[in-house]
């Protein structure tokens, strides 16, 4: 069945880095755009980043632009989020989500989500 | 694009009709999705493109609207529907979520 599984979360000090991974299975990964969405403890959902199916374009939320990098390896069916210069406000559960139905992002529907991985930024 | 929702929370009983509204700060045509999130779980898409029911979602959920104003309706609230609901625009590559509406038991 279609599945996404995030990994790589943990505790990091402010200013340090973490890399999250999202392993995809059960579908042709190279055909879908992919997103990262995060949720701070007790807060709502915040979109983080998107990458097109072929990796040709990427967009970021203003809150992470210049610090986070989204990438993918279609040969490994894996999505990544490199998080640098981490801040306390980056503390959240990070979800990866598959996009369907859209064109260049417009109309994307996040139809499959992973279970999330927790990132805690604290000294 | 900013997204707002009202109410921020509501209390309702099983069998009640529940309506949640979502407003965009500018026209987003029908590029509006609704998600349900149960505490401790990942979000689940209910409605896409404002009014289309996602496969597998019960027909008591429905969506309407276009432009800037949208609604999610639950025709007869069931015990498993107590959750937080989020709208989200996919008109621009900022994919903004609304702040959420929590539906709890009256």
Could you describe the 3D structure shown?
The complex is a heterodimer of chains A (123) and B (106). By secondary structure, chain A is mainly beta. Chain A contains no helices and 11 strands. The relative contact order of chain A is 0.30. By secondary structure, chain B is mainly β. Chain B contains no helices and 10 strands. In chain B, the strands form 2 sheets. Chain B has a 6-stranded mixed β-sheet, with no helix packed on it. In chain B, strands 1-3-8-7 form a 4-stranded antiparallel β-sheet, with no helix packed on it. The chains are: A mainly beta (123), B mainly beta (106). At the A-B interface, strand 5 and strand 10 of A face strand 4, strand 5 and strand 9 of B.
Give the proportion of residues in helices of chain B.
under 10%
- Most strands sheet of chain B: 6 strands, mixed
Low-confidence stretches of chain B: none
Query: Ranges of chain A with pLDDT <50 over ≥5 residues?
Result: none
Order of helices and strands of chain A: EEEEEEEEEEE
Spatial order of the strands forming the largest sheet of chain B: 2-10-9-4-5-6
Average pLDDT over all residues of chain A: 97
* Spatial extent as radius of gyration of chain B: 13 Å
Q: Helix- and strand-based class of chain B?
A: mainly beta
Quantity of strands of chain B, as a count: 10
So how many helices of chain A? 0
Looking at the chains present, what oligomeric state does this protein adopt? heterodimer
Question: Helices and strands in order, then pairings?
Answer:
The complex is a heterodimer of chains A (123) and B (106).
Chain A (H helix, E strand, L loop, with lengths): L2 E5 L2 E3 L5 E8 L8 E6 L5 E7 L6 E3 L7 E6 L4 E6 L8 E9 L8 E5 L3 E5 L2
Parallel strand pairs in A: 2-11
Antiparallel strand pairs in A: 1-3, 3-8, 4-5, 4-9, 5-6, 7-8, 9-10, 9-11
Chain B lengths: L2 E4 L2 E4 L5 E7 L7 E6 L6 E5 L3 E2 L7 E6 L2 E6 L9 E6 L11 E5 L1
Parallel strand pairs in B: 2-10
Antiparallel strand pairs in B: 1-3, 3-8, 4-5, 4-9, 5-6, 7-8, 9-10
């Amino acid at each position: 069945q279609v599945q996404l599984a995030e990994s790589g979360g943990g505790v990091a000090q402010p200013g340090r880095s973490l890399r999250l991974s999202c392993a995809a299975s059960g579908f042709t990964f190279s055909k879908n755009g992919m997103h990262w969405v995060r949720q701070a403890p007790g807060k709502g959902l915040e979109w983080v980043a998107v990458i097109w199916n072929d990796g040709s374009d990427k967009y970021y939320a203003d809150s992470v632009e210049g610090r986070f990098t989204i990438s993918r390896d279609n040969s490994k069916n894996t999505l990544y989020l490199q998080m640098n210069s981490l801040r306390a406000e980056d503390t959240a559960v990070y979800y990866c989500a598959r996009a369907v139905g859209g064109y260049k992002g417009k109309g994307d529907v996040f139809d499959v989500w992973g279970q999330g991985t927790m990132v805690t930024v604290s000294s | 694009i900013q997204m707002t929702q009202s109410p921020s929370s509501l209390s309702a009983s099983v069998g009640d009709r529940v309506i949640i509204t979502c407003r965009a700060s500018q026209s987003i045509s029908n590029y509006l999705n609704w998600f349900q999130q149960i505490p401790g779980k990942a979000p689940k898409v209910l409605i896409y493109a404002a009014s289309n029911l996602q496969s597998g979602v019960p027909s008591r959920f429905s969506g309407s609207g276009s432009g800037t104003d949208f609604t999610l309706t639950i025709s007869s609230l069931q015990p498993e529907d107590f959750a937080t609901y989020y709208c989200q625009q996919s008109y621009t590559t900022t994919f903004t979520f609304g702040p959420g509406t929590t539906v709890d038991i009256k």
